């Protein structure tokens, strides 16, 4: 009997840990938005069962198999990516320590942006927040290096093959360069704005990421957030914004396990 209790405890622990890491993985992808929709559908189904709404129950029971097939098709990119990472042994690495941005990182980032602006080198620098950017990382070239002003400038140097794409930053590391971003179709944007600005706004419409844009023609700084573009930023304004952002998201300068993130 005692052995049975031990086995049950181990069984429950394994399932709980697996579900936790599954949710943690989904948090790093855009599939988390689809997951919210599934939770809503499940809530509607349970409510229909409790209230005796027979038509809704019949609909869910008849189309359960169809819904399952649709889910497999919709989640196919995430499932494929996960299986590939498991095969390479890369999944555990992603679920380890979460880097926390420091004041040194912010000053290095701003110094690199200032150098690019002075030389009028066009650039898009994306700062990942809660919404994962895995889909866009795959469109570029993996870097996975500690961010520095010198590295940032070299990636956007005019003769660099990665010059035209975006750099994606997570924590204090550059994950990838030369990444392709979706273009905004907003009619409110100034028609004189180029592809970089529209790509930055397009990404901010779909995710909660911050996208910093440096104009190639004027060297001006712009910041795209939540579908809005703020132009003509100074170094001081940008630095203040970044310090405010990372102070809110990561109040301590340290390495944390994923479950130690501040709840928003």
Give an account of the 3D structure.
- This protein has helices at about 1-25, 30-50, 55-60, 65-75, 75-90, 90-95, 105-120, 135, 150-155, 195-205, 235-250, and strands at about 125, 140-145, 165-170, 175-180, 210-215, 220-225, 230-235.
- By secondary structure, it is α+β, with helices and mostly antiparallel strands.
- The chain is elongated and about 65 Å long.
- It contains 11 helices and 7 strands.
- Helix 7 (about 105-120) runs parallel beside helix 9.
- It has 2 domains: about 1-95, no CATH class; about 105-260, YojJ-like (1, CATH 3.40.1700.
- About 55% of the residues lie in helices and about 15% in strands.
- A hairpin with a 6-residue loop joins strand 5 (about 210-215) and strand 6 (about 220-225).
What's this model, at a glance?
With 264 residues, this protein is of the alpha+beta class. Helices cover 53% and strands 15% of the residues.
What layout of secondary structure does this protein have?
Blueprint: H1 2-27, H2 31-51, H3 54-62, H4 64-74, H5 76-88, H6 91-94, H7 103-118, E1 123-127, H8 134-137, E2 141-146, H9 149-156, E3 166-170, E4 173-179, H10 195-206, E5 210-214, E6 221-225, E7 228-233, H11 235-249
Parallel strand pairs: 1-3
Antiparallel strand pairs: 1-5, 2-4, 3-4, 5-6, 6-7
Overall pLDDT level = 80
Helix-strand topology string: HHHHHHHEHEHEEHEEEH
Structural class: alpha+beta
Q: Kindly provide the name of the CATH class of the largest domain.
A: Alpha Beta
Alpha carbon gap, first and last residue: 43 Å
**Helix amount:** 40-55%
Total strands: 7
Tally of DSSP helical segments: 11
CATH third-tier fold name of the largest domain: YojJ-like (1
Q: How many domains make up the coordinates?
A: 2
Low-confidence stretches: 88-99, 250-264
CATH superfamily heading of the largest domain: DNA integrity scanning protein, DisA, N-terminal domain
Tell me the fraction of residues in β-strands, as a range: 5-15%
How would you characterize the largest beta sheet? Answer: 7 strands, mixed
How would you describe the shape? elongated
Task: Supply Rg.
Answer: 22 Å
Cross-sheet strand order for the largest sheet: 2-4-3-1-5-6-7
CATH architecture heading of the largest domain: 3-Layer(aba) Sandwich
